[in-house]
Design goal:
Number of strands: 4
Shape: elongated
Low-confidence stretches: none
CATH architecture: 2-Layer Sandwich
Order of helices and strands: EHEHHHEE
Mean pLDDT: 94
Strand content: 25-35%
Radius of gyration: 16 Å
Helix content: 25-40%
CATH class: Alpha Beta
CATH topology: GTP Cyclohydrolase I, domain 2
Largest sheet: 4 strands, antiparallel
């Protein structure tokens, strides 16, 4: 059986969370977007058409959601926690990349978003 490496993406998951270094950021909260890319062997799933043979998107989403609800000072920490939680609960990941974006960050001017990406 030939191996088929695929990338599963869950893009722009939106969460309201309380990440930030400053007390005001944590009290007020903000909107965050998370994009997840998971590299995995999709050979069996592409042949069987069965969800048990692939990375379950709903489980991945719930892992991200749970981690987003835990306040952190830095987006770097949020990315790190998400990746570790994914690898702890999902065995079929070859590589994963998570990108967390804070919308309309308070930077003293008009900024659409700030983002941090981390791969493991």
């Amino acid at each position: 059986m030939n191996k088929n490496t695929g990338i599963i993406e869950i893009e722009n998951m939106e969460f309201f969370a309380r990440h930030g270094c400053y007390e005001e950021e944590r009290l007020k909260g903000n909107t965050f977007l998370v994009t997840l890319k998971i590299e995995t062997d999709i050979t069996l799933a592409s042949e069987s058409d069965n969800i048990i043979d692939t990375v379950n998107y709903q489980i991945a989403y719930n892992i991200v959601k749970d981690e987003m609800m835990i306040p952190s000072n830095l987006l770097e920490n949020v990315c790190y926690r998400i990746l570790n939680a994914l690898y702890d609960r999902m065995t079929d990941i070859k590589k994963a990349t998570v990108k967390v974006s804070k919308l309309n960050p308070a930077m003293g001017g008009k900024v659409e978003k700030t983002s941090v990406s981390l791969s493991k």
